């Protein structure tokens, strides 16, 4: 790569880092905290062992769906988090134990740190607009890793591994940024790319294209358009639905029950089979909201290879696969991004080298010429 191109790459790397570094730092830090969310939610029964049998899940479902306030759905307990989460409108919700007893309620996401922290990490508190900003920052992070590796190659002989700058001067910060970045480059690339895949479907399709036809993958990820014969019945038989789902997929865990959002929508039940990485699974059943009859089902094991690869993005990004070892790896990635992003902003905006004042040359006068001093 020629010197002019390297200078341009360096200029883009520095300016984009100065503009987006703080966002990436905050996304990295919040992500590192969220990776361990299930461990630090200190509520009663949060660490109860999972009771996946149909009878226990049906008992809890009937109790939670009978609560006043119009429940919108249930996120069921997992082996790592022993509480069911029930969602209501306007950000309200509750946690309940696996017998259906309410443990705690909230009227707004601001009452639960894991909820507002996720909203920040995913939406930057600004809904769809925040998703776009986060996605752009993720793509920028991919650029930083690639361009940083190219720029590092010129100075590879001066490599020194440092978690923290030797001193808080701009040269020391730049050296630490460069050398720590190359060490963490594979993890940062994985975090940034999987995050962008989750926010921008075209990016995901480009990444999974080598694993199968893009059109086939995109079609497999779209939910089928089933219609209910009427509104949600007042006496819905939740137990019968769960039994039917268990008979269809006997090895799968119950993961998410979603009620219709508008007339004609079906009830949706997501399940997770043993070989699925995605924590909430992609094995799905749809039920008629009026009658409870099964309208259709999708087996995640039968999805095209491209769709299966896409479904690996979130568990890799959020540390939902690989146990504690992978959670630690992704924690290091998030903290590394926080350090690199914050120091990039600090060095760019507050530690820029001061321009030396140029002293003008003395004027040449006739007397100086006559005296022979010039």
UniProtKB/TrEMBL annotation:
The chain crosses the membrane at residues 12-35, 132-153, 180-200, 324-349. Signal peptide: none annotated. Keywords: Membrane, Transmembrane, Transmembrane helix. InterPro entries: PepSY-ass_TM. It holds the Pfam family PepSY_TM. This is PepSY domain-containing protein. It comes from Caenibius tardaugens NBRC 16725.
């Amino acid at each position: 790569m020629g010197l002019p191109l390297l200078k341009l790459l360096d200029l883009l790397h520095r300016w984009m880092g100065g503009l987006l570094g703080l966002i990436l730092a905050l996304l990295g830090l919040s992500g590192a905290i969220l990776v361990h969310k299930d461990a630090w939610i200190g509520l009663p029964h949060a660490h109860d062992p999972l009771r996946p049998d149909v009878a226990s899940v049906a008992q809890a479902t009937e109790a939670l769906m009978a609560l006043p306030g119009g429940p919108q759905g249930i996120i069921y307990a997992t082996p790592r988090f022993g509480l069911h989460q029930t969602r209501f409108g306007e950000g309200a919700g509750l946690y309940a134990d696996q017998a259906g007893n309410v443990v705690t309620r909230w009227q707004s996401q601001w009452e639960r740190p894991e909820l507002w922290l996720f909203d920040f990490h995913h939406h930057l508190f600004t809904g769809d607009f925040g998703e776009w900003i986060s996605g752009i920052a993720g793509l920028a992070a991919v650029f930083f890793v690639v361009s940083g590796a190219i720029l590092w190659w010129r100075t590879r002989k001066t490599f020194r591994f440092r978690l923290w700058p030797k001193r808080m001067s701009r040269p020391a910060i730049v050296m630490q940024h460069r050398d720590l970045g190359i060490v963490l480059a594979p993890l940062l690339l994985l975090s940034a790319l999987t995050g962008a895949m989750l926010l921008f479907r075209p990016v995901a399709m480009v990444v999974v294209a080598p694993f199968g036809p893009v059109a086939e993958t995109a079609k497999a990820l779209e939910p089928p358009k089933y219609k209910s014969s009427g509104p949600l019945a007042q006496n819905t038989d939740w137990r019968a639905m769960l039994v039917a789902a268990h008979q269809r997929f006997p090895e799968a865990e119950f993961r998410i029950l979603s009620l219709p959002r508008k007339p004609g929508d079906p009830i949706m039940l997501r399940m997770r089979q043993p070989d699925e990485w995605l924590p909430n699974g992609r094995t799905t059943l749809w039920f008629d909201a009026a009658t409870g009859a099964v309208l259709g089902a999708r087996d995640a094991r039968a999805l095209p290879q491209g769709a299966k690869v896409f479904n690996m993005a979130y568990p890799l990004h959020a540390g939902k696969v690989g146990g504690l070892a992978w959670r630690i790896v992704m924690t290091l990635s998030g903290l590394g991004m926080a350090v690199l992003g914050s120091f990039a902003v600090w060095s760019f905006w507050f530690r820029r080298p001061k321009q030396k004042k140029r002293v003008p040359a003395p004027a040449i006068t006739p007397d100086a010429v006559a005296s022979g001093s010039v």
